[in-house]
Design goal:
InterPro entries: DUF5110, Gal_mutarotase_sf_dom, GH, Glyco_hydro_31_AS, Glyco_hydro_31_C, Glyco_hydro_31_N_dom, Glyco_hydro_31_TIM, Glyco_hydro_b. By secondary structure, this protein is of the alpha+beta class. It has four domains: about 230 residues, Immunoglobulin-like; about 250 residues, Glycosidases (TIM Barrel), CATH 3.20.20.80; about 80 residues, Golgi alpha-mannosidase II (Immunoglobulin-like), CATH 2.60.40.1180; about 110 residues, Sandwich (Immunoglobulin-like). About 20% of the residues lie in helices and about 30% in strands. The chain is built from twelve helices and 51 strands. It has a nine-stranded antiparallel sheet with strand order 5-6-7-8-9-10-17-16-12, with no helix packed on it. A nine-stranded parallel sheet has the order 31-30-28-25-21-20-19-33-32. α3 links the parallel β20 and β21. It starts with 17 loop residues before the first strand and ends with a strand. The relative contact order is 0.08. It binds alpha-D-glucopyranose.
Amino acid sequence: MIVNTELEQKGNLFPSKIIAYKKEVDTLYFSTDNDVVLEMTILRDSVIRFRYTTTGTFDKDFSYAITKYASTGYNLLEIEEEAESYKVTTSKLICHIKKDNLKVYIFDAKDHKLINEDELGFHWEESYEYGGNIVKMSKTSHDGESFFGLGDKPVELNLKGKRFENWVTDSYAYGKGTDPIYKAIPFFTGLHNKKAYGIFFDNTFRSYFDFSQERRNVTSFWAQGGEMNYYFIYGPKMEDVVANYTDLTGKPHQLPPLWALGFHQCKWSYYPESKVKEITSKFRELKIPCDAIYLDIDYMDGFRCFTWDKTHFPDPKRMVKELLDDGFKTVVIIDPGIKIDKDYSVFREALENDYFCKRADGPYMKGKVWPGECYFPDFTHKKVRDWWSDLYRELIEDIGVKGVWNDMNEPAVMEVPNKTFPDDVRHEYEGNRCSHRKAHNVYGMQMARATYQGVKKYAYPKRPFVITRAAYAGTQRYTSTWTGDNVATWEHLWIANIQAQRLAMSGFSFAGSDIGGFAEQPQGELFTRWIQLGIFHPFCRVHSSGDHGNQEPWAFDEDVTNIVRKFIELRYQLLPYLYTAFWKYVEEGIPMLKSLVIYDQEDVHTHYRSDEFIYGDHLLICPILEPNARGRRMFIPRGQWFNFWTDQLVSGGKEMWVDADIETIPVFVKAGAVIPKYPVQQYVGEIEIKEVTLDVYFKDGKESSTLFDDAHDGYDYTKGRYSLRTFKLTGKKDELIIQQHKEGKYDAGYQIFKIKFHGLPFTVGRIQVDNEDIALSDVKMNGDNTMIIDKGFSQLHIFGK
Ligand code: GLC
């Protein structure tokens, strides 16, 4: 394995001086006299692509990561030739490209301050072994600069002082610091002088990032092949960097069905059918809400994908329907390895049609996975994806399975040292044929894409649900994800918290961990603390290997069951809040979880915080990560916050102790927020929602909240049949005004809001709805500061006595 270290490499080559320059529409080309060309494309005023070749010409441009839906267009593009450099100006950025060495310096167009500068800049080393280059970039990093992102790395949020590798890897029972693991998302955000920028290095080869580890003032990234090809994304707000990166690599193509945001129960494995039913019945009996039940590999016949073990599941269609009648959506696992078996139709079809990956010299890529020796479809070939997507017809359309779980798609191979395909395996890569060195990091993504395509087609007119383990940048367009085979330890609870936040800041919000830990068995306390965090992750599923005992909410003691129920109920109550956050993510690329640094980058205290995060727009969550805790110290960001459990108001911008015995974890609500809540349901759609509660938290000042709604499934919302309510709150010493604005053609079945006021600093004396006085009794306003109001109100005005 070639591991570059910048200093040690003697074979580095560098661009020489610029001898020619040309402009074609939105793209500039700077050529040096040693055949290096920098291609600089202005995608938006704040998004610029930098691409280099060392041969004078570029290979065909192709990316699995960049979406065709990415926004493009800029307001300004000016190029000036100066004595020592070319100056490229957009409305947001000024770039200087040095004539004598091609180095790039990027400034904020408004205040002309330096944001990012090349240190050695682009350089490379020729790869004798494989041909092509090891491509490298180094940038100056500044004192006080922080770095965030990179997908699922299980280390502190701030990456400064560390080095990472991107190579999608099956990592059973990984731990803190294990690198690489399941995902390769070569995107980071840098933050210094209160300004954030992002760099997305769109190169699928094994790549590395060094954040001031090797040299204190240098950030570098390099890959073992392909092009130096990166996107520079300017904020200066970190949230905008993440949103713009997400726009570039794609927002989810549609909202998930609302049920997918409910609670999911999984285990390796629930079988036979009677066991599955026993589990689902227990949920209903104990009144613990649950929307999805998973079938792991044992539902199949000898682990052959797209088959059923008919002794354990004699009539899957009937079972799936019965589960659905009870509110349970069935999700089944599908792995990429296809058992070598001439009597198995999926194997035969793939063989006959030449869909399997081959080694360099012609034999099939053969490897062991659950079914024994397997071949593996080449998902980087469109016709293979089309075939694969069609295989879902029976499962989805006929049997009625509602979601598909793609696993082992790194691809994982058992009993081999590198845990995956050898480098020489060939891939189609959409006509750009290549070796596994280039295709490895996208293999799982393309499998998930093919699955998504099939589930989407056959679930229509309903929306698809897919989950994947492996991912490259952009996978969020197709599927949700989980963080792989974690362990039932307190350290892993810490890791789960980090990974969900990190994935969100890497464009992949729809993520969660195996709650309770996959390997080993948690104590009741750990399970409880994990649920208390997990219900605030966009994807919420208990999963375990089952080797060490059961992990259902009732597998511990009654106290655990009761607390777990209370928290799962809270997730169901907050569904409209979560759904609104999801809509913002799908519409605008806004991460659903915001680490404190994203929430308030101007406060340097947030730059090294990892535990606390903002869920949606207005809830601050901090998990309890230690046994026997009765509370913890945590950082409350600037502003006024209400303790969710006690309504006690605290002023942030500091660390403080917060009580949280086993019944609670620290949750705070931002003052001024309007939090929508549903009544508890055992599953989405169980009951007709007759009223929505709005929890209104007083603020002396202004705050705005939103509530998105639609039919909770299907595509009507894309045709305007959604409703988007904005609540503008203005609070003063002795009055409170809430203005409501609604857009969209959808009208939910419920007619009323139940408004609950929290922290009103006055006693309600008078109420006006749409400028008319209303008797307090008409809105059922009583001592507990709760009132009922028609959902169509435009303005609610509360006056103190
Ligand atoms: C892998 C998955 C795990 C699954 C198991 C059996 O370890 O990560 O979630 O249960 O395979 O399919």
